[in-house]
């Protein structure tokens, strides 16, 4: 089955695509726990080799509570992307509300060690409505 990327943004010829899915089997709404998995594809459309150094996420729940998450690399990796290469990874996000949003940026460096921020598109986290 081919993954459907619902959200994308391009920064300096680097495209970040996101596909997000709610995981009911990992969620416990009765306990105030909802869980999503997201698949990210980073495409280097530039003419230079770049390395992903760090990430910054802004995660907002349905109550408007904002959580900033910073860290090195993505899922333990700091991939190097030559022109035309892509990097895919999958991660997850738990919330204590049935909806929220995520957005952020990656910091990349090029061979000259110049840093650049590459946007991660804004995307919603929405659990399907459940009958009461």
Automatic annotation (TrEMBL):
It comes from the Bacteria. Residues 8-132 form the ApaG domain. InterPro entries: ApaG-like, ApaG_domain, ApaG_sf, Uncharacterised_ApaG. SUPFAM superfamilies: ApaG-like. HAMAP family: ApaG (MF_00791). NCBIfam families: PRK05461.1 (NF003967). This is Protein ApaG. The gene is apaG.
């Amino acid at each position: 089955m081919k993954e459907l990327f619902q959200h994308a943004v391009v920064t300096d010829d680097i495209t970040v695509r996101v596909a997000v899915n709610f995981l009911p089997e990992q969620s416990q709404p009765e306990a105030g726990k909802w869980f999503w998995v997201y698949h990210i594809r980073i495409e280097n459309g530039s003419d230079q080799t770049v390395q992903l150094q760090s990430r910054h996420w802004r995660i907002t729940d349905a109550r408007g509570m904002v959580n900033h998450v910073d860290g090195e690399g993505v899922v333990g990796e700091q991939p190097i992307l030559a022109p035309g290469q892509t990097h895919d990874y999958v991660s997850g996000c738990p919330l204590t509300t049935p909806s929220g949003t995520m957005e952020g940026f990656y910091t990349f460096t090029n061979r000259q060690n110049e840093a650049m921020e590459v946007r991660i598109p804004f995307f919603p986290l929405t659990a399907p409505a459940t009958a009461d």
